[in-house]
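Possible race condition, two jobs.
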Amino acid sequence: LRDRGFTRPRVLIILPFRNDAYKLVGKLLKLLSTKQEMNLSRFTKEYGPDSEEERRHNANQRKPEDFRRTFAGNIDDAFRIGLQLHNKSVKLYADFYRADIIIASPIGLRMTTGAESGDRKDFDFLSSIEMVIMDQCDTLLMQNWDHVAHMFAHMNLMPKKDHGCDFSRVRSWCLDGMAQYRRQTILLSEYMTPEIQAAFNNHCRSIEGKVRVKPAYTGSINDVVAQVKQVFKRVSVRHLASASDDRFSHFIEQTLPELEKTELSTNHTVIFASSYFDFVRIRNHCKDKGLKFVAISEYSTKSEAMRARLKLHAGELQFILYSERAHFYYRYPIKGIRHM
């Protein structure tokens, strides 16, 4: 009888924050209806609402609804926990090699598997994963997508150690190194990005096929109350590999000179950089040119961001360079913007 893989874990669930894991485990325990839940009090203490929850809730009252929903509860993004299922009980904090379900964040899983160059590498527990669920991929993109790519690259590989495995009961397709073609992968996101599409193309390899569900939206540009002039420019690129360089060249040759010509008091401009690499390139270029600007990133302190917003409102800056991650994590209200 061949009815198992190399290791016990079958399901891997990737979530961005501890609060999401707290909600998920609560729903799983209700569905399982077990008589005993081991280590539940420890789990509630470490994953439930923390001491800063009330303060954050009061501070976020003026934030948009999606922001309050994303950053509610415990928002620690470094966690991993194993669930071991028995007939009448569930054990939380089970060792990964004895767990049936693993719930983790990308960085939490990376802390277990180890770095590329190091002695502490252990990803054998990913060798027999049969289902991967990645929820809120749009939020995971705001963390570090390299950890997700690292996870997929080390999944369903041949284990380096036997870990007490009875090879006579291991499925034939696991022994043949075909486990990735039997794995079901579910990616859930509010919107599609090139990174998510690449994961869909390169890592969803089930022999049963794959499907992408893309709901249709009517759009919301007609719901904008203020009449805002919007200009869309198409930037021609030589090929896909040079798209970032071509876009940066167009910005410093076409867009930035127009901004430099205008008077300081009439600018009130914010440059929004979706990629942190673009943010750094633009920041370094503007520093070299001696432009009067301030850069706000996710690493900026609240006082630095406050001073920059006040200077922009007073017309003392040519522009503010604003990163997407700073907007995602802090959602600063910036007054006086006339151009973006």
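Job #2 (started ~2 s after job #1):
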Amino acid sequence: MVTGGVSMIIGFLGCCGAIKENVCQLSMYFISVFVVVAIEIGGGIWIFLNQGEVIDTLQERMGATYTEDFKLFIDLLQEKLACCGIKGPEDWAKNNLTIPDSCGIGAATIVAPGPRDDDVQKQHLETTGCVDRIYQYITTIFIIVGGIICLQILVIVFSVILCRAIREADDYDDDDRSFA
């Protein structure tokens, strides 16, 4: 909500500056967008450089926190991301836990109960670990944010061009008045 409010104020500043042809407002808009882009790039670089630590921390937390308190969270994560365990379903056996229904077993058992239950469960069991799915999700987000950053850089360039055009027009108007 705070980010949206700040973005709205920055956009309003740019829009008013362009409509009023106010160089001061356009300069503030340029500086604001430049700071936002710098923060985004800095955050992206930090995450890229520390991605190993982030993934290791995630693995530790997921392995250590599968208690009843966090069962709902982990089950929701596994269902929404279509994953199972930290690196795969074998993680549950390593921790002496049964594979939860959120790994896809529950749906398979309901669909085809009977003697072939194990075969059906293996077919519907998610084999991708949640860390891999989260990594894929973060990679997708980085691509989207990279595109947004490119658009923001274009906005910065256009605001500088507009500032220069306004200044040149003001200089031209001042020169025109001196001859009158």
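Residues 4 and 14 are 15 Å apart (CA to CA).
Logs attached separately.
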